[in-house]
Every structure is written in C-alpha cells, then in structure tokens.
Amino acid sequence: MNPAAAAASALQTAPPGHAWRQLKSRGMGAVMLLCCLLVMAPLFLVLYFLIHEGASAVDWNFFTQLPKPPGELGGGMANAITGSLVLLAMAAAIGVPLGVLGGIYLAEYGSARANYWIRFAADVLNGIPSIVWGMVVYALLVVPFKSFSAYAGGVALGLIMIPLVMRTTEEMLLLVPQGYREAALALGIARWRMITVIVVRTALKGIITGVLVALARVAGETAPLLFTALGNNFWNHNLAEPIAAVPLQIFTYAISPYDDWHRQAWAGALVLLAMILVLNVFVRIISRDRKFN
Amino acid sequence: MADPIRLTSPLPSPRPDAPGPAAPVRPPPPGADVAFDIRDFSLWYFAHQALDAVTIQIPRQKVTAIIGPSGCGKSTFLRALNRMHELSPGVRIAGEPRLNGENLYAPQIDPTMVRRRIGMVFQKSNPFPTMTIAENVLCGLRLNGVRDRPLLRERLEQSLRMAALWDEVKDHLDRPGTSLSGGQQQRLCIARAIAVRPEVLLLDEPCSALDPIATAKVEELIHELKRDYTIVIVTHNMQQAARVSDRTAFFYLGQLIEYADTRTIFMNPANPQTEAYVSGRFG
Amino acid sequence: MPAAPAAPAAVPSAPPRRWPDVSFRWLALLAAATIVALIFLVGWELYRGAHLAVMKFGVNFLHHSVWDPVADDYGAWPFIFGTLVTSVIALLLAVPLGVGTALYLTEIAPLRIRQPLVMVVEMLAAVPSVIFGLWGVFVLVPWLRDNLFVWLKKWLGFLPLFQGPIYGVSVLAGGIIVAIMILPIITSVSREILRSVPNLQREAAYALGATHWEVIRLAVLSYARRGIFGAAVLGLGRALGETMAITMVIGNRAEVSASLFAPGYTLASVIANEFTEATTDMYLSALFELGLVLLVVTILVNVVAQLMLRSLAGGGTGKVQ
Question: For a 10 Å CB count at each end of chain A, is N or C smaller?
Fold first, then answer.
C-alpha cells in the first residue's frame, strides 16, 4: 500500500455519522428555506387577492364619487381619500415638529443618561397598541368638545408619529460627521444655527425618509380613528366634525353584509396598499445614497 | 499510557507510517516527510489575484512560519489550506494543494472533513461564549459523535495539558470560556483545536493580541506541539518566526519569494527582497 | 491722509446674542420631554376613564368572566383569556418561522437574493392591519374552515383543543392572522441579532470541521439566543395589542372555551367593537379599564423586551461625543 493511497482514504473515509451530519445540515437548510417561503407567502397572497378582487372596482368613480347607500351599486371613496390626506396632514403637523425637535435634542444636546431614558420612553411608546391612542384622544378631545372630529383623528395619528420620527431623526443626525459641527462652530456660528443650517440640512434627506416611513405607517392605521375621526359617508366641511378615512371605510365595508361594499373594500385596500408600498419603495430609492461625503 | 501527552488517537489515524514501495501515481511522489505539497496554487477574490502560483512543500512535524508585509497573501494562503476561504464570497482557485499526496480540493472531498483534519487557531481568540471551558474543548469531539464519557474526560485533560492550560483551569472547568484572560483564551482555542486530533495545526497570528508573557507561553507550546503536529504559523513578528519555526517562507504581493530553513532566511537570505524585509527595511 | 488702522479691523459683528441659542435648546428639550410626558398622559387618561369601573369592581374585574352591558356587570377574563391564547398561538407559529427566516437570510441565502428578500419582509411589515383583516375574513377564514380545521379535527380531534363545531372565525384563526402580522418584526429583529454574531465565532466552528447546520447551532444560535428571546418578547408586545385584523376574524364572542375552533374576543377587539356603542357611563368606564389592562401589560412586555435587547446592544445608539 503506498502512502498516497493511504492518505486518499484518510480524507475520503468520513468518521461514522458523518453522512448523517451532512444530511441533517442539508435538511435544516431546506427547513429554513421553507420558513422563508412561508413568511413571504402572505404578502404575495394578499397582493394577489387585492388585485383579483379589487382591481375591477378601481375606476374613475372610485376616486370621484361619494359612497352610495347599501343596495345601490357603484359609488366611490372620494371623501375617504380626501379625508385620509387631511388626517395625514394634521398628523404630520403634530408629529414632524415634535419628533424632529426631540431627535435634535437627543443627537445634539442630551446627556447620555437623559438620552437613555428618552429613547427608552420612545421605544416603549412605540409599542403601545394604537387602539389605546384612540381612547386617550377620545378622552382628551372628543369628550370635552362633545363631538368626534377630524382634529381628534389627526391628533391620534400625530401622537403615534412622534416617537417614530424622533428615533429616525436622531439616527440620521448622528450620521453627520462630527467635523461638520466643529467646522461650523469654528466659523463662529451660534450652536442653534449650526444645528439647523449645517447638521439638519446635511441629514435632511434621511429625516424626510423617516417622516415618509412614519406617514406610511399611520396612513394604514384604523384602530385609533374608530372613535376619534369616526368616519363619515359625506364630505367633511368642518374639521370639528367626523371625517372619513380609507382604512375606516375598508373596515366598515368589510364587515357589512353587502357584496358591492365588499368589492369596494377590496378596491379601497388595493389603493391604500399601493400608496403605502409605492411610498416605501420611493423611500428606499431616495435613501439608497444616504452616506455623506 | 506511559506518557499522558503522547497521543494515540482512537479515531482512525491517517498517518502513513509505513512508506511502501514508491508508486508515483501522481507526478510529485510525496516524501514521507512532506505534509503539504503545493504546486502553482493561485487564488482570486473576484478580479483581485491574492496568490500567484505558489509552490511550496511543507514538512511534517515541523513548524513552518509564513512571514511578509500586510496584504502579501500570507493569511489567505493559510486559510486556503483548510478551505476556510470558501466562506468568503467571490473566491476562485487554481492548482491542487495536496495533503499527504491527496488533492484537498478534489470534488469528492467534503470541506468539513478537510477542516476536521486541519485545525486552525485564529488571530483573535474565539471561545464559544455560551459554553464552559470543558464544553469548548470537547465541542469538536461531540460534533463527531464521541459520547464515551471516560474518553471525553481523558481528552479534556490531555488537550488542556498539551495547551499548557490544565493547571490554571482544572478547578473551574465549568466556568464560561470567556471568563479566562486573553492569553488563556487563546490557549483554550488551541486546546479546542487539538482535541479532535488534527494532523495539521494552522495558526493565524495567534499572538498578535497577546501580551509578551502570554506570547512566550504560546510559543513554548508551539515547540511542544510540533512533536505531534505539522504546524503552519502566520506571523507579523519576525523575531517570533525566528524563535519558533524550522522553515520560513517569505511572501510578497501574493508570491512566494523565498522558502528555506529559518536560519538561512534570517542569516543569509538569497533574495534581496527577503533581506530587505527581515532586516526591517520595508513592510 | 488717514493712516491705515494699526490693527486690522475686525469684521463688524453684533455682540453674540445668547437667547436664540438658549431658547432653541429649551424647545428641543421640551419636544424630547413630550415623549416622557406622553407615557404618563396615556396612563392618566386611561385611569381617569376607568375610575368608575375600578371603584366598583376592584381586582375582581380581572377574573370575573361575565360581560353583560344590559345588567351593567363587567369582567375582563374572557378578553384577557382570548388575548393570551391568540398571542401564544401567534408566538408558537411566528417565532420558529421568523427565526428560521432570519437564519436563512443571514446564513444560507445566496448573497444576491438577500437584499430583495429582506425588502419583501419589510413590505410585509408595511401592510396595514385592516388589509390583513379583510383578506382574513374573505380568504383565510373560509380556507381554514374548509381545509386546515377539518384536517386538524380529523387527526387531532381527540384533544379538547380541536373539538367542537367549526365556524371558521375562531381563536385559532385570530392567532394565525396575528402570527402573520408579527412575523416581520420578529424576523427583522432576529436578523439584526444574527448579523451581530461575530464572524470569528462561525470560523471557530468551521475550523473544527462542523457542518453548516452545526456552525449555526453552535456558533450562531447559542450566541444569539438571548437576543432572539428579546425579539420574541417584542413580538408578544405587538401581538397583545393587535386590533383590526384580529377583530375581523376572531368571531367576537365573550366566552372562555377550551376549543381553539370556538369564537373568542380580545381586549383590543372588544374596545374596537363596543366603544362607540357604550351607552352607560359604567359600560364606557369598563371599556377604559380593559384599555388600562392592555396598556399596563403591553408596557411591561415592551420594557422587558427593550431591556433585553438593549443589554445586548450596549445602550442602543450612543451619542457621538
């Protein structure tokens, strides 16, 4: 027996159990792939059914008409779409300034200890169920003014936005190189000017990204609107009165007994999800080159 | 067993002890004293060529040091020997590195078997943090299905003794591996590598993160280990190469510039680049 | 001729004013403090709303299992039970699937397809609850009723869990839909954790001759198990508060049943359904108390999750000093 042959057997003869170990490794790999496929499946199933059931109802009327009473075919979600946009604008008016300023505090001023607790609070706040926000705003704005209102809906969504915007703003500001701050301060610029003109401007794209992601998130929120904005089958002419929103309308239609309303619910869901996904994809594209210099 | 350190492996030992009649099945008949026989071995990361036609024969049961400036391909070369580089993306190779005359990269060869026989110790110590000292050492054996408690116990002590760690840890084998000091952790990793009784031990700058005292211990250990193992050590530290190795290879820009006895490389190098490097004029 | 000034004149500048700096700082602090204030505000408002019910029912509210608005008699047990059962089902389904997916994405998938797959998971996270609910009502529940549930009843019907009439809308359907909804967060947090496992750990296992799966088990999973537990707790927090989708598929019946095929109710869904119908003060107050229970539990769960994940990350995003 020559040494080469002896050695060849050395590398190729595996110890007992080796084949089983390899098989197990392959098997577990397959299991993980299966997990991945199962996790992704709902997205594609939902998309398929939205298009299959909803696409036929998305037409010109859907965007221009008010809902029809049950029994009458047709109608649309014009008021709900407008209502959603109004609510989002109000949410942004509350969530963006507070969130961005809070993020500025965390990134530029706060002490490590204070920041730890504020971040902690923000993350915990983020985990509070959105329906709880609806109850809180109900107690704060609906009960005292004795009416469901667009204002209340906007505030509820805005409060949900604050921690989201704050955390991303902070992250984006921390990405700005320290040198920029020092350079600005060395020019004799006041600190607040340095922050607003140099740091926030540099991180602006990232901050906008964060705001858009937060808007996309609250755009689909239904629970906090149930007893704040309430919903409305007609145009809202006064923000102190109830207002329609697309997610609310989807919910109302989905649990109704009418086929035509079900179709409308699918159509509304299709439009809503398309808007949210487009926003998310858009955000990914603009945030692709997020690095500075 | 007369000498507890001397190894008699219960796993099938692949060492060809009896060199039979020379039957040159493959072009270079491997001498009994050659472990790695490597000819024209090249390696690329995507388009970048990291190793260029390296030809080298690494002797059995000797310490071979690989030196050279950063980025010269010495670590790449070491990791190619037990196919660790396959974990990085975009790697291509050419050539057939042979261990005991057998192509490590032959299609029917399973890389896990290659690594089982060629152990490795890394630059930074990496004990498994969730395992105790004992579990760390025995982890390779357990993977290979060794369940025999007395044998595991024996291997544990042997390996830790060989790694010169036994006396320091024997009373707290069930503490986490990460509770040890840096030097002890590195010796623990060496114990873990030798517990499976590989034929070859690859050391990738094993002392670069250690203090001088811990370094001295590891170097002493390398001296001890070469009785049983073929050792290849990559080092940045030329004094270390001079101290621990029998043969030294100088790599530069992905090429093997010079390979000779350590004394020759350091006292009387043939190549001017080698001379410049070992005398500290570049790198 | 006037001589040139001896010293170069300074650029004319107003003396530095401090008030804009100070007020900007205070403004920022105020915004940051809002966050902390909001937590107290939420707790206070819910407590204020629940005061009436808390006074009347006391601790009994938690384990009293009658919910009768007509008799003005309220107990939270059926809702707490439903919330717990659906959350447990959701975790049992979502943790293995999410961790498996995260492992596939970090350890196995070819590099080229990792990013697109991660994007799919993120898109899944962006789908609003109400849309999952809609899909659940019209697609998932009928499918479960005619296939999976029948199959379960046939083969596992000896267990009390899978006995009784099949309606489709059920605790099990609720658990499944919540599982789908918490999968993205469990997957993405687990993925972050797995990505933080040092490569050196993997190499150590490979160098011992471990197979791919053994490397994952020895070096990756054992290193990451605490973080993965944190991800699961975070998922639990989301599951407890999930509202719209589950409201639409759970059947909304306030009863405690051993069968997973029976309709149930959760804290969040009873609030969603009955809040605007609450006619008496006590009814509304009882609903507020349900909200308070939900708030306390989710805050506790989230605090635990954050503490677990933070102790790994070393305090989250540290300030660059």
Answer: C
